[in-house]
Specification:
five-stranded mixed sheet, binds magnesium ion, globular, disordered C terminus, binds adenosine-5'-triphosphate, 26% strand, single chain, alpha+beta, nine-stranded mixed sheet, 34% helix, BirA Bifunctional Protein, domain 2, 2 domains
Length: 465
């Protein structure tokens, strides 16, 4: 993309209404614009990051064997009356009427709708196990929408629902989700710690929230410092293997890590004092096994192997896709702006032309731009007629992890400069070497996608990016 043709309305001033750094930076970098309280337009740069995050979520869901679909945002009130949640949900639910006076709502979540679908089509245990998911906009009329996309009213969520024949099988689905979420967040450059959470009125021990540690987080958390040493990395996991998923769950949940709702001071104090941590965190996801409650209410039963009619065991599993954009910035920025992790960056590399209009420099930038694109990379070429200082400031603000600076002085020596946004370190090399180096840096990220194409039954989702 050439910056002169793009739409990147960066702001010089710090917007007064934004209280936390991610909100400020998203406004300043021209990523979002508020449409009304808690409702945002995603401007091109923000939209790109949102899509990158969504893409990783899809890839890891499909890798885990889950099946993508799409349910509508508007729902009829009827099913919610059956489940009893139409009244229980309260003022957070946005209710509306159509021209025939039928009661509708903008879905805050989709348990009812998915259970009704499964109830209608799945009749035999042979169709199980089944996990369906979608990435769709939700609406919750939050009392205090704030912090930009972190607590919006309209927000994008991945919500998935597992349907299993027995509690044991549903718990495997739970573990499988935990494993896939660990991979998902790490690919986004985030450490999200699974913490034991409150299961609310339904009860049971089976819910974990994934929290990103950040001072601006809305949740208070307590954990054993050892947990922050754990990484999932590039392990090969067979998602159908009960012991493999179980082992990962045990590894990541055996140390103390709880939100304030489930915090137990007695247990916490058994950890050596030097390792006890009390901090704040941003909830970026939650997994939940809740049994047969919805299946029984909405008629999702199957015949088991013995021919008996039994209700399905369910769980629901959410990832806050739009909240993640803010959470990643909270975790990765400095005083100059955003620092995108390579996995989610809107463009792979920026090209800064130090002498726009100089024929030699322009030609070198054009050649580099083409070379990067030929390697499958997306460069953002700052071809505006601006001072070098202004170009550097914009690049630093929007946070591309790598920058290649091209100027007449370097070109005389046959070099350009490759700079890391994170460390600020620069290295001079030929333009060809710089392009090759950047391609090498992103190779592991692209390998994820390449590896996915073969085993995937449905390749169509690759085409929408
Ligand atoms: P919270 O406690 O933050 O209100 P929740 O527990 O009600 O969230 P879930 O129903 O677990 O939310 O939704 C799954 C994920 O969706 C959350 O983990 C969070 O990342 C995201 N999410 C929930 N509410 C919002 C919101 N108002 N704005 C943006 N993202 C949200
Ligand atoms: Mg939650």
């Amino acid at each position: 993309m050439r910056l002169s043709r793009y739409f990147l309305p960066v702001l010089k001033e710090t917007p007064a209404e934004a209280q936390i750094v991610s909100h400020r930076l998203m406004l300043r970098a021209g990523m979002i614009r508020q449409a009304s309280a808690g409702i945002y337009s995603w401007l091109p740069l923000g939209f790109k990051v949102l899509r990158r995050i969504e893409q990783i979520v899809h890839e890891e869901q499909i890798r885990a064997g889950h099946v993508p679909m799409l349910m509508p945002t508007l729902q009829s009130a009827d099913l919610w009356r059956v489940s009893g949640r139409y009244d229980a949900y309260g003022p957070e639910m946005l209710r509306l009427k159509d021209r025939h006076d039928r009661e509708m709502l903008y879905g805050p979540t989709n348990e009812e709708m998915i259970t009704e679908i499964v109830a209608n089509y799945v009749t035999s245990y042979k169709a199980l196990p089944l996990t369906l998911y979608h990435v769709q906009w939700k609406f919750r009329d939050e009392v205090r929408p704030r912090f930009g996309v972190m607590r919006g009213r309209e927000f994008l969520m991945k919500d998935g629902y597992n349907f299993d024949l027995s509690k044991d099988m549903a718990l495997h689905a739970y573990n499988r989700h935990l494993v896939s979420y660990l991979r998902t967040y790490e690919r986004m450059g985030l450490q999200a710690i699974p913490m034991r959470a409150d299961s609310g009125p339904i009860g049971g021990d089976y819910t974990h929230e994934f929290l990103v540690l950040a001072d601006t987080g809305e949740s208070e958390v307590f954990y054993d410092a050892e947990i922050t040493d754990l990484t999932f990395g590039e392990r090969e996991i067979d998602y159908d293997s009960v012991p493999q998923c179980q082992a990962v769950l045990e590894e990541f949940t055996s140390r103390y890590a709880r939100t304030d709702e489930t915090h137990d001071a007695g247990l916490f104090n058994q950890i050596p004092e030097a390792r006890r941590r009390q901090a704040r965190g941003i909830e970026v996801g939650q997994i939940f096994y809740f049994g047969t409650e919805y299946s029984e209410k909405l008629g999702a039963f199957v015949q088991n192997e013995g021919g008996e009619r039994v209700p399905l065991h369910m769980g629901s599993h959410g990832i806050g896709v739009s909240r993640l954009v803010g959470a990643i910035i909270e975790a990765s920025h400095d005083e100059k702006g955003i620092i995108w992790p390579e996995g989610v960056t809107p463009f792979h590399v920026g090209i800064v032309n130090l002498r726009q209009g100089d024929s030699g420099t322009d030609a070198a930038c054009e050649a580099l731009y083409k070379a990067l694109k030929a390697k499958g990379l997306e460069p953002l070429y700052d071809d505006r007629d601006e001072r070098a200082g202004a170009k550097f400031a914009s690049m630093d603000l929007i946070g591309l992890p790598w920058r290649i600076t091209v100027g007449p002085r370097g070109l005389e020596k046959g070099v350009v400069e490759l700079t890391s946004r994170r460390t600020g370190d620069s290295e001079e090399m030929s333009a060809e070497d710089a392009a090759a180096r950047v391609a090498e840096i992103y190779a592991p990220h692209h390998a994820h996608v390449a590896a996915m194409v073969e085993p995937m039954a449905d390749r169509s989702f690759h085409t929408w990016l």
